[in-house]
Amino acid sequence: MTVNFSSDRLDFIAHRDADGWIEAVAAEMAKAINEDITELGRARILLSGGTTPAPVYQALAELDVLWDRVEVSLADERWLSPQDRDSNAWLVRESLLKRAEGAHFDPLVRVGKPLPECVYTANLQAQHSQRPSLVALGMGNDGHTASLFPGSKDLARAVESTLPYAALDATGCPGSNQWPLRITLTPHGLQQCRQRLLLLRGKQKLEVLQQALDSNDAQQYPILNAINLDGARLRVHWAN
């Protein structure tokens, strides 16, 4: 499939097929992790949920990484127990952690704790941990990334936050489905990541990304909050 997409605001990598996409993204993630382990002795990564990245995490777990030196956390989470099958924590555990022996996992939701306390703990953890080696992001057809949903009453507050994580109520936002209450990385949190990856599949996602760039409206297309940051450019890996 010929892809007609280019932008000087991000790095765009198109892959011939799904297998090549999985292999290339996993390899890039492993490289970033290993570079930080070599330089700092440890690495920290932030992962997103959803079905799109799951095979990448499975492939990553099979690569040559010293997993006992890796701390894994999340880009965002639904207000669900980490044991709930619909939580991002569950997906990351099933696709990566069960295979990556020794990796340490810090969920965003703590069972029995109220949402504000979970956000406080997530921010405390982030502020006392090393800078993330990478964050792996997805994007919805509504232009959201992490849990920064267009139309959310909390979007402006989350975007303007000077903390890594924020609570967000996405009630009324179709992309949030039946889980409106969220914990999400803020743009400030995204900016702390040494490398930012956006994992996309399908023509529709590419069209949404182009619409976002053309509009330059970060309220309508919150994915722009991951693009319009100083530092390392967003690296977009796409396959049909």
SSE succession: EHEHEEHEHEHEEHEHHE
Shape: globular
Low-confidence stretches: none
CATH architecture: 3-Layer(aba) Sandwich
Mean pLDDT rating: 96
- Bin the helical content: 25-40%
**Total count of helical runs of at least 4 residues:** 8
Strand content: 15-25%
CATH fold-level topology = Rossmann fold
Number of domains: 1
Structural class category: alpha/beta
Radius of gyration: 17 Å
Q: Strand order, biggest sheet? A: 1-10-9-6-2-3-5
Q: What is the number of E strands?
A: 10
**CATH class type:** Alpha Beta
**Biggest sheet, open or closed, and with what strands and sense?**
7 strands, parallel
Report how far the terminal alpha carbons are from each other. 8 Å
Protein model, in words:
The protein is of the alpha/beta class. The protein has one domain (11-147, 190-239): Rossmann fold, CATH 3.40.50.1360. Helix content is 34%, strand content 18%. The protein has helices at 18-40, 54-61, 88-97, 115-127, 155-160, 187-191, 203-215, 224-227, and strands spanning 11-14, 43-47, 70-74, 76-78, 104-105, 134-137, 165-169, 181-185, 196-201, 235-239. The strands form 2 sheets. A 7-stranded parallel β-sheet has the order 1-10-9-6-2-3-5, sandwiched between helices. It has a 3-stranded antiparallel β-sheet with strand order 4-8-7. Strand 2, helix 2 (54-61) and strand 3 form a beta-alpha-beta unit. Helix 1 (18-40) crosses helix 2 (54-61) and helix 2 runs parallel beside helix 3. The longest helix is centred in the first third of the chain and has 23 residues, at 18-40. The radius of gyration is 17 Å and the shape is globular.
